[in-house]
Write a structure and sequence with these properties.
Distance between the termini: 35 Å
Strand order of the largest sheet: 1-2
Number of helices: 15
Structural class: mainly alpha
Shape: globular
Order of helices and strands: HHHHHHHHHHHHEEHHH
Oligomer: single chain
CATH superfamily of the domain at 65-229: MetI-like
Strand content: under 5%
Length: 273
């Protein structure tokens, strides 16, 4: 290897390390703050070395009942994703293969994403209040489905359009019905795209704040709402807030580890035939 290549590789690795540190620094600092008492967490200039403590994590579960809110987020996010993906998959397939409703219906579906949530939250709250769906898992799942499904339909439609029609024609020759072709051929082939869509749906539900703030109550409060409640009139509880953030990102880390190969394949699905 020539000296110019060595210098080029060293410069490339240096730049990548710098950018990696920039990305990781907020997470590292949040971990540091979660292990400090509030006095240390608020010190200016900040103290780099101190005796770490897990009191913030203990109080988070003992006094703030964070385990209940964490479980609420899991139930709502998983429930929305499990119900939304099959609906979006069949809708996306109908649009990509049969052009159901034409361009007008396709545009109408994606147009629902153009309205900001703040415009819809008041009428949605009045509607849900009238049918007793506020402060309930079903209400939150229905609200999230209404916003996730149009996006997921368009996302999955792109994946299905990348699958050659010849595969379905061959399946029809072998005697498979259209629904059998979808279930036994199209869905397995589209697994990377479906997994990617599922991850995005879960993340959207997990991080959503506005609808969770208005439509939930003490029994169904989610993680983002519980974290926002740590900004009190007495000040921000930096230690417990940081501890809650670290716990909140654990599901994302677990998901990224177990479905990383599907996510990478899903993001590049259809790029190469």
């Amino acid at each position: 290897m020539t000296s110019s290549k060595i210098v080029k590789n060293a410069a490339t690795h240096f730049v990548l390390i710098i950018f990696s540190l920039i990305i990781l620094l907020p997470i590292i600092w949040t971990i540091r703050t979660s292990l400090a008492i509030d006095v240390v967490a608020c010190e200016i200039p900040p103290r780099l070395f101190f005796k770490p403590t897990f009191d913030n994590y203990i109080e988070l579960f003992r006094k703030n009942h964070y385990d209940r809110f964490f479980l609420n987020s899991i139930i709502i996010s998983l429930g929305t994703t499990i119900i939304s993906i099959p609906i979006a998959a069949f809708g996306g397939y109908a649009f990509s293969r049969y052009r159901t409703g034409g361009k007008t219906l396709q545009f109408s579906i994606i147009a629902t994403q153009m309205l900001p949530g703040i415009v819809l939250i008041v009428p949605l709250f009045i509607l849900f209040k009238g049918v007793n769906l506020t402060n309930s898992y079903i209400g939150m799942i229905l609200a999230y489905m209404a916003f996730n499904i149009p996006f997921l339909v368009w996302l999955l439609m792109g994946f299905f359009e990348g699958i050659p029609v010849d595969i379905e024609e061959a399946a029809a020759i072998d005697g498979l019905t259209p629904i059998g072709t979808v279930l036994r051929i199209i869905i397995p082939v589209s697994k990377p795209g479906i997994m990617s869509s599922s991850i995005l749906s879960f993340i959207f539900c997990w991080n959503e704040f506005l609808f969770a703030l208005v439509l939930t109550g003490q029994e169904t409060k989610t993680v983002p709402v519980s974290l926002a409640a740590m900004v009190t009139f007495r000040g921000i509880q930096y230690g417990k807030l940081s501890a809650g953030i670290i716990i909140a990102i654990i599901p994302m880390i677990i998901i990224s580890i177990f479905v990383k190969k599907y996510l990478i394949r899903g993001l590049t699905f259809g790029a190469i035939k």
